[in-house]
Design a protein that fits this description.
377 residues; alpha/beta; Enolase-like, domain 1; seven-stranded parallel sheet; four-stranded antiparallel sheet; binds 2-succinylbenzoate; binds magnesium ion
Length: 377
């Protein structure tokens, strides 16, 4: 049965951009740095029928990808939002085509696309999950655990998440903080579903070290090499028993097809921001499903807006591995939605209300806002 995935056109009156700075409950350390505050752009698409919400998942600095808060703000304010405002009335599915002339800036585009889809679906009374083709009412919840002071501290933190009920653990690794950290978690907790994420911190020269991870029976190793190292990833994947999963490298459905053709990885982490939007994310899902490749939904420390969207995406049938869709409280004491995602028996519920199915906590939104601009035609 072909999915129509078509929403009614929206009339875009204005786009409001905000930069938020939301404190994290604990520092989050990866191979590329430590965050203590989540700086994020929240987008509101204003239509005659009401507002839709989106989130731009850039980080403050260009360390995970080339985009960052100020670059996304600039391209949204200068090009991306004006292009949509100029069109005035369009269907959400037309957004990628309207924005195609602007090269790159996928996270920026994805955030505005989401706001437009949310506005359209709220007007129709249809949920984002229904729109995307969700087939589940809840999704299994994995947690991404940052690098800690030492392996013993990591074991403590992981133990806390397992007690909360998370069904899969992902630990961040980097050169010098890989084998001992992984060994400590494996020894402490036995055969739990465990995977590691290197965020591009290695080169092919580290293949011997990475091959030593094989003895830990990991679900996968995520993005060991650089974003554009598709050929090196293929060479590495052929040497490892641990499946290679790509995150940073997969910037589009085309990149996913190329990576699969090259054998660069056998699993894909789907992040809508990284690949330019939820519509492109569904395209990656579809092509992987046809190719028999497992996908899972990654995270970017989303607020309740992106977290709701990710839960809906992860409910598509090809998402066969637990995603990084944890409870909001794993990152935030205060979220910007009135009913933040909670963990229930190791799962997060897929919202069923109109659009993203979450309501904005206006006071919290205001409190965390550090910059704001409203763009009109
Ligand atoms: O590589 O998956 C990643 C957070 C920020 C940037 C990149 C990554 C991550 C995470 C956290 O691992 C995932 C989450 O939101 O829980
Ligand atoms: Mg990753």
């Amino acid at each position: 049965m072909p999915l129509t995935r078509a929403a009614a056109p929206v009339t875009l009156d204005a786009v409001e951009l905000r930069v938020l700075q939301i404190p994290l409950v604990s520092p989050f350390t990866t191979s590329f740095g430590t965050e203590t505050v989540r700086e994020v752009i929240v987008v509101a698409a204003e239509t005659p029928d009401g507002r839709g919400w989106g989130e731009v998942v850039t980080m403050a600095a260009p360390l995970y990808s080339s985009e960052y808060t100020a670059s996304a703000w600039d391209v949204l304010a200068r090009y991306v939002a004006p292009a949509l405002l100029e069109r005035r009335a369009f269907a959400p599915e037309e957004v990628p085509g309207i924005l195609r002339p602007f090269v790159g800036h996928r996270m920026a585009k994805a955030g505005l696309e989401l706001a437009v889809i949310d506005a359209a679906l709220r007007a129709e009374g249809r949920s984002f999950g229904q729109y995307l083709g969700a087939e589940k009412d809840r999704v299994p919840s994995g947690v991404s655990v940052g690098i800690q002071r030492d392996p013993a501290a990591l074991v403590d933190v992981v133990g806390g998440y397992l007690d909360e009920g998370y069904v899969r653990i992902k630990i961040k690794i980097k050169p010098g903080r890989d084998l001992a950290d992984t060994a400590a978690v494996r020894e402490a907790f036995g055969s739990i579903p465990l995977q590691v994420d290197a965020n591009s911190a290695y080169t092919l020269q580290d293949a011997d070290t990475l091959a030593e991870l094989d003895r830990f029976d990991l679900l996968l190793i995520e993005q060991p090499l650089q974003e554009d190292d598709l050929v090196d990833h293929a060479t590495l994947a052929a040497r490892l028993r641990t499946p290679v999963c790509l995150d940073e490298s997969i910037v589009s459905a085309k990149a996913a097809a190329d990576a699969l053709a090259l054998g660069s990885g056998s699993i894909i982490n789907v992040k809508a921001g990284r690949i330019g939007g939820y519509l492109e994310a569904v395209a990656v899902h579809d092509l992987c499903r046809d190719a028999g490749i497992a996908v899972w939904c990654g995270g970017m420390l989303e607020t309740g807006i992106g977290r709701a969207a990710n839960a809906a995406l992860a409910a598509l049938p090809g998402f066969t591995l637990p995603g990084d869709i944890s409870a909001s409280a794993r990152f935030y004491e205060h979220d910007i939605v009135t009913e933040p995602a909670v963990l229930d028996d190791g799962h997060v519920r897929v919202p069923t209300g109109p659009g993203l199915g979450v309501e904005i906590d206006a006071a919290a939104l205001e409190r965390f806002t550090v910059r704001r601009e409203r763009l009109t035609r």
